[in-house]
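ASSEMBLY PREDICTION REQUEST
Request ID: AP-0331
Submitted by: J.K., bench scientist
Number of chains: two
Total residues: 454
Priority: normal
Notes: Please return the full assembly, not individual chains.
Input sequences:
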Amino acid sequence: MSSLNKSSFLRIFLSYLPIVMLFFSVFNEFDFNYLKLDYFAFNFVHLLIFFWTLRNPDQLGYLAIFFAGIINDVVIGIPIGISSFYYLILCSVTAYIRNITLTPNFIKDWISLLFTILLINSIQVIILDLVFLIKVDYTNYLINSGFTFLFYPIFFVFFNFLNERISYQTND
Amino acid sequence: MATGRDDFVIAIRSAFLKKKDKQKFSLLTLIFVSIFVIILSNLNFKVIQFVKLGINEVIYRSSHIASIPENYLKDITSKFNSHMDLYKSHQKELVKLENSEQLELQNEFLTAENKKLRDLLDESINSKEIFARVLIDKDSPYLKSVVLNKGTKDKVKIGMAVIDEVYLVGQIIEVNYSNSRALLLSDLNSKIPSVLEPDDIQAVVSGTGSNFGTIEHTQIDYKEGINNKEIIAYTSGLGGLFKPGIPIGKIDNTSEGQINFFSDFTQLNYVKIVSYKFGGEK
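STATUS: Completed
Returned structure:
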């Protein structure tokens, strides 16, 4: 009985972990997106959304992503709705990739991530700089995109392990 | 060819419209909602302003609570470092103390004289200070700002100066009921009218998005004056928001034209929100 309860707790905990990580990242002051280091930053939230909406979309709902975007906008102080919009664009790309892919391939995912990040960062720069006239640093965006792309394999290993645990617990 | 195009259309339609078992809304619906939110958030209707204030209040408070463990860790690290540097900082403080006693006397005389002269010109400056605590200092590459725990209920208004000890750190750009957001001097969008002393050169101190600022809209040859001397930037008072003479930062030989702010924006805990009244202003 005890082991049953334990397993059920673990299953619930693991199934909510991607959402918890997403909301923790947008709420918390600690941000990989701005580590106060020169020429080093990456967007953890982009990696998280990209992986989970591509590999296991049941664990990270679009509505949760939408609300995470709203929270992110309020916390960092940019006009409300922008982060939600580009997080959802990221989801659209992953949904498209999922539809046209029969067997998932890490390398193809990785290359698609680069194009996706460049696309959503360009959209963000266009909205912030040209529509809302908020000055942004293009170098920061480029560095951020580069490191987000480079860090994907590391987080892929971690998220994939987590995903396997979730699948194992769900099928158990 | 036609089949390829059909496949593409089917994949796109499926991506945007199809809902998975646990998804309550399709992607297209949420994308339209987010565009709607972006448009709404930029309209100045009273209802929208109230909803925005409500969202800000709830999220700022929640973010502050979510950051408590992390801030606690930061505090411990800072205390540990301060403990380790105790001897070194004590020696530095001793040297500073010797000079500051002489400067204090000189300062008192100059302040009194300055006040007397301003009164004669009917240019007296009165200030009102509100002490505030920093709730959130989540930096981002897009906006360098901090959220403070004082808002409209404490009579905070947009444009008020934010001061750390005696140094300018930014100005209020958004006010909610119980909190407000201050744009730091380091933000790319920050422009402060200033005067460079001792040469008395008018300039604008502009943020760069990094921890230093730059000098803009000034004499082209101002850099020649920097050689072998330290230049201090103070607020010039032009624009009427800040009083003249609030220290901002300094430029020296090693800083290559960059202005190093006096205040460390990563260590802000408590600040003053200050409003100024000039001369006969009501």
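REVIEWER COMMENTS: Residues 2-171 of chain A form a domain with the Arp2/3 complex 21 kDa subunit ARPC3 fold (CATH 1.10.1760).
SIGN-OFF: pending second reviewer
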